Every structure is written in C-alpha cells, then in structure tokens.
Amino acid sequence: MGGVLIWTAPDHFGEMLIFYRDILSLPLRGERDGFANFAWDNFKLTLGVHHEISGVNHDPLRIMVNFLVTDIQISYKKLCDRNVYFMRKPEKESWGGWVTTFADPDGNTLQLLQLSD
Prior knowledge:
The protein contains two helices and eight strands, in the order E-H-E-E-E-E-H-E-E-E. The chain is α/β, with parallel strands linked by helices. The protein has two domains: about 1-50, Roll (2,3-Dihydroxybiphenyl 1,2-Dioxygenase, domain 1); about 65-115, 2,3-Dihydroxybiphenyl 1,2-Dioxygenase, domain 1, CATH 3.10.180.10. The radius of gyration is 14 Å and the shape is globular.
C-alpha cells in the first residue's frame, strides 16, 4: 500500500493541516491549494479538500490510521503536551505490542502503534 488519503471539508482543511503538520509533526512532502502530502517513513498520507464533504466524520471507527512509533510512551507524552486528547491511553496488547488511540479534528480515529517493547 502506498498511502492513505483523508478527505476533509473546505472549511476544515486549515485545522487539519495544522494538526497533521504541527501537532503530529509529520514531515510535509508537498502542499498546494487544498492538498497536503506527508511522509511517515515509506508511507504517504495525504489531506485533501472534497467539496461534497461537510462537518466532522460521523462514523469515525470505520477506518483507523496507525502510525508506527519506536517509543509509544514518549510519543504519547509529546502529543499530550500538545493538547491531543486520547480516547485510550497506551496499553500493551496480548500480542506484545502497544496501542494508544486518539482522533484528528475531523473525528477520524488514529492510533500510535509500537510493535514490541
């Protein structure tokens, strides 16, 4: 898989851009009117304006974007310091990895994922 495209309403694009660029600190690969493309290692995440979308996501559990991290506790603390609200604090899973869950400004569900200790 090459990446994920998250559509947002025209009036939400600025807030979404700030969240992914400034709060999550994703490296910005490119930006043009209504589009921003980020890199996360070899994974690409794109934000785009779609004129048929309005408001926040009313079904936020339909898809989850997982961001692999090497130290979930450090990443969790950094995002908490940036006022990101977590629905689920970091927890160790039965398969040995760690997961924590939060949302972007449109209500899309995101997770930090650490594969092992």
